[in-house]
Task: structure prediction
Amino acid sequence: MNTFFDSLRKFRLPFFGSLGIYADLGTSTTRLAIKDKGIVLKEPTYLAFNSLSRSYIFCGREAKDIVGKTPEFLKIVRPMVGGIVSDFDAEVAIIRFFIEKSIYPYLRQFPLVKPTLSALAAYPVIATEIEQKAVEEVMLKAGCASVNMIERPLATAAGCGLDIFSHTPNLIVDLGGGITEISVVSGGGIVASKTIKHSGEHMDKLIGNYIYLKHGVTLGEATCERLKTELFTFEGENKMMVVRGKSLENGLPKSIKITSLDVKEALLTAFMAIVDAIKELVELSPPEIVDEIYERGILLTGQFASVKGLERFFKDEIKIETTSVKNYQDATINGLMLIDKLPGAAERLNTHRFS
Result:
């Protein structure tokens, strides 16, 4: 009998614990991570809905690759709009699929009883209480036993390597796919923030409209995104790409040459709107904060932080030193992992549950 209990003590029992996971539910990209293991999933937030079988048949990258190529009974669904859950059932379906794909394989080491999942998720500052509740419900219905949530700018600041509990203010500009969040973080909270709802994906439409008006050619969503990714720059180089779209004259395919200057001209208005929002936030901040922001500079994160010459562009327009952080695309999910390791961080940062 003693031998049995000795063996039982050595066996790893998950009954009294849970597996910590982290979720960054982005408009364009969903990221999941596991405690002490790191990021395990980074996929586009796309689903394909089959109206005949009333089911979601493709998720993530597979669904994004067929945008614009589907038959009538297949509909591409974007469950997140502007950082907010817009299609609850679709978001539950995609998160459940992602958890089964990336989290469940790590549970195979528990052959008898699986540990429960405990999630820490981020939500944008502009989210109402109902919209925050929607994020929690999504994670619960996707298979999590408990969910804690935190404002996204705090997680992003931690992922930038900042001491978010320090009373030294930091200005962070998160150039995401769905929204651009501009926040001043200090003392474990958000001193001031502004959000621009139309960001990366809106810029794809701006490029499409620009090509439509200038060349009389309609381009697909994927082509516009590729032009933005490969040609957009604030530096002097002027790269060129040949793309093919549908001519408005006869409806036939037509090839045109697009340069970096074309893309910059199409997107300049959008970036000037971001500059104006940063200026407004700085102008509304107390003098002490403005002085320290001027000394410490602006930190850029998000998918657009990689644009060449963007740091100099912001510096010239705002007159404040600007720097892109390392691992800019994963700053939020990295921040969630770092925050969870800090003793007492949940209480100090006012992470909360709605249950």
